Amino acid sequence: MIAALTVAGVLLLAASTHAQSQPAFEAASIKSSKGDMDQFRVSAGGIDVRDFTLGALIQTAYGVQSFQISGGPAWLASDRFNIVARSTGAPSRQQTNLMLQTLLVERFHLALLRETKELPVYHLNPAKSGSKLTPAPADPRPGDGDFHWGLGRIQGQGVTVDGFCEILSLQLQHQVLDKTNLAGRFDLKLLHMPDNYRPRDSEASVNPNEPRPNPEGAPIFSALQEQLGLKLEPAKGPVEVLVIDRVEKPSEN
Predict the structure, then answer these.
(1) Residues 30 and 87 grouped into a single domain
(2) pLDDT tens digits, residue range 39-97?
(3) How many domains does the chain have?
(4) Region at 20 (left for phi over 0; alpha for psi -120 to 50; beta for the rest)
(5) Domain for residue 149, yes or no?
């Protein structure tokens, strides 16, 4: 029991020190929400968040994905919040994320542990036919480095394979590691049929201007080989995980 109390005390002290050593918003309002907009806006004056779960806020603040968060209560993925937080100056996105981390510690009493676990991952390799990625032009263009994705669609202009792996990780909810040895930047477009896609169930939650997948399209694993000359292979690998040790619902203001 003494050992357990000691560990908890260390965690709380670490959380307090963390909050004091990082930048913070000057003022913040948090209210519960019943909406489903999932909107996160960043401006020079702060952030305006609509209908975000705490799980999504953690992902944004710490730059992780849902499969990298372990533990926590059930409401982590169900209860939604509206947050308006204000800052002075013109903080960078990285500084804004640090401010959000501080907000989560101060208002949600969030305490996290970082662990590395051996989990299922995917290795991205060239297919037998060889890579079909199109090298980006040498001269820079507006929009280079950007990805655009939607239902059954990933498109990138002047992007790296590492960046593509991050988008694939988000789509597959597993870490995707680059094993292609393909350096440089590429233009790419991948069209695929999402797993368990049912048009009627998806219509309400999809932007009406978003193109719908081809019902006869290939699943993402086959589409990668056919369209980009790349393949995903299951493996095991180290994945950094955030373990939730403590969290509370915030008081509204």
Answers:
(1) yes
(2) 999 988 899 999 999 999 999 999 999 999 999 999 999 999 999 999 988 889 999 99
(3) 2
(4) alpha
(5) yes
